[in-house]
Structure formats: structure tokens, C-alpha cells
Design goal:
mainly beta; Pnp Oxidase, Chain A; seven-stranded antiparallel sheet; two-stranded antiparallel sheet; 1 helix; 9 strands; globular
Length: about 170
């Protein structure tokens, strides 16, 4: 008998949360209702490689793995007048903390792929040592009737898929 775990997950229902990397910081975690986004990209890990040529043999080589690299996490959502915790952290970091390296407050960001409800977490990824790298407000155009878009680009040092949610 097939169950829901036998089918590929749908990628349109997700949520993002965050909490301080250092639990003793005075800041607080983002509330889940604050962190809904239109799209998320950058969930990727790539292992580099080093090519070693076997001396004397021109037709053989060895490929050895090197360090893992990660792209930036890019979060996109409609721009609102409401100042969110996530937006406040990004604005504060880019305008104040980024200039004072002894006061940088990194966070752990979690992206959760949801099933039918916010309580049904199908998969989740933790991104560690996150800091905002860029905050962009999309172009305004009087010729088009489109939403104003905010894009947050967040750098991270490593990621981990939380497999215990899969049961």
C-alpha cells in the first residue's frame, strides 16, 4: 500500500524560521507567521575536485574530492509595510552590524517543506552561521500592475538536511 511518503513532494508550500546561532544573544527567534516567502533558492551543496594525472599515462587521471561549497540562500517575497523580524535583522546587519565585526549576530535559518498544513513538515534543511549579504527591493514600474518584491540574500557556512522529520 502506498502512502504520502512514496510520492514526490510538492514545492509550493514551505516556511522559513530562524534563531540566533548563539543562544545567549539578546535577540529572539522569528515567529513562523512572519517568515513566509514566494520563493527560496540556494539549497545546494557542491564538492570540488582536484585532478591528478598519473605520470607516464596520458589517458588516465584520478579525480579527488576537495571542500564543499554552498551558494547563497535567496529568499523572495512581496514587499509589505509591516517591519518583520527577519527584515529587521537583515536591515540592522547590513546597516550597522556589518560595519562592526565584533558584534556580528549570525543565525541558523531553517527551511521547511510542508504538506497540507503548517504542522505537516515533510522535509527541512538547517543553514548554519547565516548572515545577510544583500537586501534588494525590486524595480517599480508605472506601466505594469505588479507586486513590489523584496529579495533577501543570505550567506551560510554549511547546511544539513533534517532527516528525523521523515520518520
Amino acid at each position: 500500500m502506498l502512502n504520502n511518503k512514496d510520492y514526490p513532494a510538492l514545492g509550493f508550500n514551505f516556511n522559513i524560521t530562524s534563531f540566533p546561532t548563539n543562544p545567549f544573544e539578546a535577540s529572539y527567534a522569528f515567529i513562523p507567521s512572519d517568515s513566509f516567502f514566494q520563493s527560496v533558492s540556494g539549497i545546494k551543496a557542491t564538492v570540488g575536485e582536484s585532478v591528478v594525472v598519473n605520470s607516464g599515462f596520458n589517458n588516465s587521471q584520478y579525480k579527488l574530492p576537495t571542500g564543499t561549497t554552498y551558494p547563497d540562500l535567496v529568499l523572495t517575497r512581496g514587499l509589505t509595510n509591516n517591519i518583520s523580524d527577519l527584515g529587521y535583522w537583515c536591515h540592522n546587519f547590513l546597516n550597522q552590524q556589518g560595519q562592526q565585526y565584533d558584534k556580528i549576530q549570525t543565525r541558523t535559518v531553517t527551511v521547511m517543506l510542508l504538506g497540507g498544513s503548517i504542522l505537516n513538515i515533510l522535509m527541512a534543511w538547517n543553514f548554519y552561521d547565516c548572515y545577510p549579504k544583500e537586501l534588494e527591493v525590486g524595480a517599480f514600474n508605472a506601466d505594469k500592475s505588479e507586486l513590489a518584491i523584496e529579495t533577501l540574500t543570505i550567506a551560510y557556512s554549511r547546511m544539513e538536511k533534517m532527516s528525523n522529520l521523515l520518520g
